[in-house]
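We modelled the chain as a single entity of 305 amino acids. Its sequence is:
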Amino acid sequence: MPASEPRYMGGQAVLEGVMMRGATTWAVAVRDRDGAIKVDVRDVPGWAERYRAIPVLRGVMSLGESLGLGYQALTWSANQQVPADEQVSEKAMGWAVAVAAVVFSALFIVLPALAGRSFGHMFHGSFPVFEGLARLAIFVVYLLAVSRLRDIRRVFEYHGAEHKAIAAYENGVELTPETAQQFSTAHVRCGTNFLLTVMVVAIVVYAVIPRPNLFAVIGSRLVLVPLIAGLSYEVIRLAANHMQYKYVRAAMRPGLLLQRLTTRRPDLDQLEVAIASLRAVMTADQLAEVDARAGLRTPAVAPAV
């Protein structure tokens, strides 16, 4: 498999299913109310690909494109779980996303800034450190709280299924629920790992930004979100290409451990859905290669325990 190929395989969990993105297409596979697997395949917009050679900017564009695809995938998956007369409109979903953005800003920008302002005077230059620790603490508490909801636990299980299916593909084994199940639910390119990296990079960036008052702090945090996201993308990209080194694996371990909060062990039915989504975005050559190697190789990574 070419070294650059894994960048084309990624996705996210949705309601009762998984979205996967390939080189030129993306797909959503869900299990509907009747137990059947439904798959929707669409073309990738491709506008983020134009910036693939520009560091930092490529991360910002890739994140923007991923958020757009995720929004569409979530809307489609939600509508597969309800009758036709109860479909969720894009306008309603848009309002939900807007409310979520406001809540996100309050929880992960305003509250940490207040914490940094309250405790940062204890040690010189410690404002961004306390701010970052507060942001991480809020994130962990939030994950622990929402994981108690049944629907969210199901999403976390599909999140685990997404990781296992991709791991099975990247390790050249047969794409079946049984073979995918042996892999870990942790993956270095996971969004959870990305978010933790964002929090660490933010501490470094915010340390050099002036803080004349609280409004300036909050404003700078909002303005610098794209820059921090782009830098974090480069860190994850670099780490994913050098996981053979012990120090890189050690640096990524906290993010992999944090995924224990955002993933759960899926059942075989959920893995079947994830594999259906993954196969839907493969090119003809990729499908031929996967099918030709089916059952002929052992996993290149240790099975999950």
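As a brief sanity check on the tokenised model: The two ends are 26 Å apart (CA to CA). Residues 90-119 form the longest helix (30 residues).
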